[in-house]
Amino acid sequence: MLEHADFLCNSSDAYNHSPEMNRLFVEGMKEITRFHQQNNAFYARLLEKKQFDIDSLMTVDDCANIPFLYADFFKTHVVKSIPDEMVAEHFTSSGTTGQMSQMFFDARSLGLGIQMVDFEMEYLGFVAPEQVCNYILYSYEIPKDSTLGTANTDKRLLKYTKVNEVEYALKQNGRGGYEFDVFGIIRAFQRFAAQGLPVRILGFPSFFYFTLEQMRDLKMPPVKLHPDSCTIFGGGWKGYAGKQISKLALYQLGEEILGIPNHRFCDGFGSVEHSIPYLECKHHHFHVPTWSRVFIRDMKTLEVLPMGEPGFLQFVSPYISSAPAHSIVMGDKAVLYPAEQCGCGLETPYFEILGRAGTSKNKSCAIAASEFLKK
User: Fold this and answer.
1) CATH architecture of 3-83+290-356
2) Mind giving me the DSSP string for 64-99?
3) Where do the domains of the chain lie?
4) pLDDT at residue 191 in the model
5) Which H or E run includes 111?
C-alpha cells in the first residue's frame, strides 16, 4: 500500500530532489494521503470537506494542496491512523510545564525517522564508529521510561561513536524536578580537555550559551577541546528569546572559549509533530532532505509563497503512517532559499527559521527547560 513512500523514505541518498525522486515523492504522498483517508475518520472528513481529489497530485508543487493540520492541533487532539496495538512508542513535546503534543508512532514511522537521522549523520560526516568521545548533553537527565522528545533524541545521538563519559546539564534534583548544573558542566569541559578525547555537545543551545557566558564572566582561561569536537544542537531558544544571540555569534564564542572549529558547529531542527531531522550543512543552513518538501505560506492568506518571502513553515512528507501529520504547518516563521544561494555543494533548497510566528503561551521543551535558567 505504501510501496513508493517506503522506497523513497528508505533511500540513503539524503539530499536528492532529482526528477526521479520527485516522482517517487508525489506517488508516496498519494499513497500516504489515501492511507490516512482509509484509516482515520477525522482526516477522511477533512478531505471530503475540502473536496480534495488525491489523484490530482501530479507534481511536487501539487502537494501543497493536500489538506494540512497545524502542529498545535496535536496539543489538544489525539488523532491516530493506527489501532492501539500498533503503537510502538509515543513522545511528548514538553516536560511538566505547559501544553504537550502527544504523538504516537507505529514501528514503520518510528524506524524511518531513526533511519533518516542515521542517513543524515553519515552524509554530513558525524558517524565515526571507532572514535571514542565524551558527551555533554544540554538536555534532561532522563529515566529509561521517559517519553520526552528532545531528551530521547539526544540519547539516540550517542550511538555514532564509542562513548567514554556522559555529563547531563539538566540533572534530576530528587524533588521531581531538574536543575541546571552549570558549574558541573564547566568542570566536565575542563576534565574532558585534559583527557584529550573529542567532545560532542548535544541539546539546547541556550544552555550552551549560558555556560560560555558564565566562563567569560568568571574570566576563566579558554579550554582547548580536541579539534574533532562538535555540537549538534536542538530545541532552540524558545522561552528565553530575550537572551538569544545569533547562531554565528554563538559559534564564534564557542570557538574562542572551547576551541571547536566553526565548521564543527551544527544546529538541528525538528519536532515531535514532524520527526524528520534537519541538520545544518557546513555553511550552517537547513537543507531539505530527500524524504521531505517545504512550502512557505502567507501568514494572513495562507497562500503558498515564492522562495525568499517569509511566512509559516510547512512540511510535507510520506514518512508518517501513525497520524495524519504528513502535511503539517508549524508555528515557526521561516523563509526558503534555492540551493545555489548556499554554495555548500548540497543541491536541495534550504530554509531559515526567523522565529515563532505567534505569541501563544504554549511551552515547548525549550521553554520548560528555560525555567531552570531563571532559578
Assistant:
1) Roll (2.30)
2) GGS--EEGGGGGT----SS-GGGEEEEEESSSSSS-
3) 3-83+290-356, 115-270+363-373
4) 98
5) helix 107-123
